[in-house]
């Protein structure tokens, strides 16, 4: 069995990686080159093409692979390879970031042989674009109030798309936000902030879409994302100053209205188990969650 060499994704690998995601459409936020490239620095994830499918390997303490991406026949061959590889290495066969659709495919090929444990903290929140744009209905009444208050407090506010001309202002705002939110003392927060800054630094290279809100000509909120599938846009980054009342609901709505209307859904990623973030994401009433989990062999009773 030939040993496969896994490598860290680099910017020039986009041409290799992106087509595999296109062959296996998913609404999961991990299934974009930009996400993989930027987060691989923190989580030490490497990739290889195995049997015609794209496979990511977590280089942590335990061997684990992301569910392969590609045409179904290639995915099946890659799974067979990984199972044999784990058997030879005498390590458990473990897959991570497995969606319900992934597991259904796998279970059809290997009925009853594997089990999945979904991780609630990693589930992506997916919303109907129209509802985020209009905030219509009784359930979102509070959001409309926040936005109206923002418009009353800051009548000179303005929205504009992020471009090469204003990306640096967003970068400086993000640095200020980092200082205000104590990111230096929190490893996870700091990692997320590094990713945020790199989204802005590589805005053009990663082909991102973005938007910002100004108050008194100063950037007080911004948003960055990209399409993840034909019908879904994923928001990777959203930052607003806590001291600017209503800035979060405002950038949320304005960004959707200006950049996302051609998509049916908006994926606003997971809550990582943070109580405040979960409450905020649920308050927008998601259409559904993209659940993801860990797959292992079913124990024989």
Structure description:
By secondary structure, this protein is an alpha+beta fold. The chain has ten helices and 13 strands. It has helices at residues 14-23, 33-43, 72-89, 100-109, 129-134, 141-153, 167-180, 187-201, 247-260, 275-282, and strands spanning 45-50, 53-58, 64-66, 95-99, 114-118, 124-128, 158-161, 209-215, 218-229, 232-240, 265-267, 288-290, 292-297. The chain has a seven-stranded mixed beta sheet. The protein has a six-stranded mixed beta sheet with strand order 1-2-3-4-13-5, with helices on both faces. Helix 2 (33-43) runs antiparallel to helix 8 (187-201) and helix 7 packs antiparallel against helix 8. The two termini are 31 Å apart. The model has no long low-confidence stretch (mean pLDDT 95). This is DUF2156 domain-containing protein. Residues 25-288 form the Phosphatidylglycerol lysyltransferase C-terminal domain.
Question: Keyphrases for this structure?
Answer:
single chain, 301 residues, alpha+beta, seven-stranded mixed beta sheet, six-stranded mixed beta sheet, 10 helices, 13 strands, 25% strand, globular
Summarize, please.
The chain is an alpha+beta fold and 301 residues long.
Question: Helices, strands, pairings?
Answer:
Layout: H1 14-23, H2 33-43, E1 45-50, E2 53-58, E3 64-66, H3 72-89, E4 95-99, H4 100-109, E5 114-118, E6 124-128, H5 129-134, H6 141-153, E7 158-161, H7 167-180, H8 187-201, E8 209-215, E9 218-229, E10 232-240, H9 247-260, E11 265-267, H10 275-282, E12 288-290, E13 292-297
Helix pairs in contact: 2-8, 7-8
């Amino acid at each position: 069995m030939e040993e496969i060499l896994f490598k860290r994704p680099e910017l020039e690998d986009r041409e290799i990686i992106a087509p595999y995601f296109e062959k296996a459409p998913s609404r999961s936020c991990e299934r974009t080159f930009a996400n993989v490239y930027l987060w691989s620095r923190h989580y030490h994830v490497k990739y290889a093409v195995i049997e015609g499918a794209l496979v990511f390997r977590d280089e942590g303490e335990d061997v684990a692979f992301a569910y392969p991406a590609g045409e179904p026949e290639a995915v099946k061959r890659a799974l067979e390879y990984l199972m044999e590889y784990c058997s030879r290495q005498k390590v458990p066969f473990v897959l991570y970031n497995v969606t319900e659709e992934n597991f259904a495919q796998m279970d059809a090929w290997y009925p009853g042989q594997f089990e999945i444990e979904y991780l609630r903290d990693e589930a992506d929140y997916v919303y109907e674009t129209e509802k985020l744009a209009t905030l219509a209905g009784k359930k979102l009444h509070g959001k409309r109030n926040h936005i109206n208050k923002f418009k009353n407090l800051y009548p000179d506010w303005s929205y504009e798309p992020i471009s090469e001309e204003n990306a640096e202002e967003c970068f400086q705002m993000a640095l200020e936000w980092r200082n205000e939110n104590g990111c230096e003392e929190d490893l996870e927060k700091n990692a997320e902030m590094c990713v945020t800054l790199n989204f802005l630094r590589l805005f053009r290279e990663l082909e991102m879409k973005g938007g910002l809100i100004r108050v008194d000509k100063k950037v007080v909120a911004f948003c960055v994302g990209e399409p993840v599938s034909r019908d879904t846009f994923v928001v990777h980054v959203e930052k607003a100053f806590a001291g600017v009342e209503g800035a979060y609901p405002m950038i949320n709505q304005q960004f959707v209205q200006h950049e996302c209307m051609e998509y049916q859904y908006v994926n606003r990623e997971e809550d990582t188990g943070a109580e405040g973030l979960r409450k905020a994401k649920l308050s927008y009433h998601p259409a559904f969650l993209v659940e993801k989990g860990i797959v292992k062999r079913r124990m024989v009773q």
